[in-house]
Amino acid sequence: MTTVVLIVLGLLFFSIILTVVLRSQPSSSKLDYQAEIPAHLGVSEDQPVYAVVLHLEAALPSEYADAVKLRVLTEHPHMSEAEFAWKWFELKRYFVMCAVLDEVPMYSVAVDEIWHEMLMFTREYNAFGEMFIGRAIHHAPHLPKSNASTKAASDSAAHPAFDPASQAASHAITDERAWFDWHYGQLFPPAPYSAYLWGSFYRTPLSHQRIDRLRDAPEADLVEDFYNKSAYESSYENREVIHDLIQHFKAQVDTAESRLRTNDRPSKEDASFSTMLPATMLYVSMDDPADYSRTMDSLMQQDRNHAHNSGCSATMYSCSSVSGSKSGGHDSHHNDGHNGTSSCSSSSSCSSSSGSSGCGGGGD
Asked: Are 109 and 158 in contact (CB under 8 A)?
């Protein structure tokens, strides 16, 4: 009788453990990831960044990409091939940003998950970095800058997150996310799952200090402060992209100042066009940063409604309808080259996939 009781208790204990383990596993996804992946990261031939994308693709041999895919799908059996493909797509966009910017936050735990597995192939990874930007793209863990991440993590059903627009978030962190958003929107067209993987875009204002600096300083000084200087100096393609970004930023600030003088405020129609959102973000940042969130909420309502109706599969700007958590949240893990750590910084964000660690990559 005692033996039977022990067996029953053992089976009960095993079933409890199995249930806990299964519940702890990330779900494959709330999305099917069945949208077609755009060629060349969605970049058209007439964009300066197109040459950088081609360089990236040449630096990633198919044998290496296939090995990374096999390892990811083996280590993460919950992940479908389609889900991997879209996360790989966004990771490559991130690497393009590392070739351009001095600091690039890694705002997605889901995308960072792929990066971690990519790093397991040390020799191939180092060779990729050397061929792409002349050095390895460093990856190092870093602690969050703000305890605000702890609060929002409890609010999110998926990614640990914090609301960078909240009072608890530091000014520097919100500036970083705004800087990331402007460049992402300027470099790449919207992709179906971008907001789901990175977190809602255009949720935080860019500081007046950075806007003034970008408006007034010569290009050489801006490259020194904000961009990948070594890539700018060694690669014609990267130099053209950085030059184009700086000129676009200055032009958009000039336009915003002109519109501010005449009280020509952005409309919802402006915010409904992806090409207009970086400029709209600058205008609202300059107009009233304290009311930035509410103003952008109003302007982007049409986009969020579209996200709600499409399951966040057709917009890069809002994914709150999918996650059920506060939009724009991210758990910051920052590596700042100016603060003694690696020069592409990293944070983790959005409200879509599980995970808690963040890492940083080095651009310059």
From this structure: no
Helix 122-133 × helix 62-75 angle, to 10°: 130
Distance, in Å, from the CA atom of 164 to the CA atom of 106, rounded to the nearest integer, reads 15
- Collapsing DSSP to helix, strand or coil, 341 comes out as coil
Distance CA 317, CA 314 (A): 9
C-alpha 97: how far from its chain's center?
Answer: 10
Model pTM score: 0.74
CB atoms within 10 A of CB 263: 7
Burial state string for 115-149 with b = 16 or more CB within 10 A and e = fewer than 16: bebbbeeeebbebbbeebbbebbbbeebebbbebb
The per-type count for the chain, helices as H runs and strands as E runs, is 18, 4
Q: Give the span between the Cα atoms of 56 and 123, in whole angstroms.
A: 17
Tokens of 226: 């904000």
Q: Using an 8 Å Cβ cutoff, are 353 and 91 in contact?
A: no
CA distances to 28, 75, 111, 171, 338 from 201, rounded to whole Å, are 24, 30, 16, 17, 25
In order, the DSSP letters of 175-220 are HHHHHHHHHHHHHS---TTHHHHH--SS-SPPPHHHHHHHHHS-HH
Which residue type, as a one-letter code, is found at position 80? S
Torsion of CA 161, 326, 88, 85, to 10 degrees: 140
Token pair of 157 as six digits? 């059903």
Rounded distance, CA 293 to CA 311, Å? 22
**CA distance linking residue 124 with residue 324, whole number of Å:** 39
Cβ-based neighbours of 118, under 8 Å, separated by 6 or more: 68, 91, 125
Residues 182-222: tens digit of each pLDDT: 999 999 998 999 999 999 899 899 999 999 999 999 999 99
Predicted confidence at residue 6, as pLDDT, reads: 54
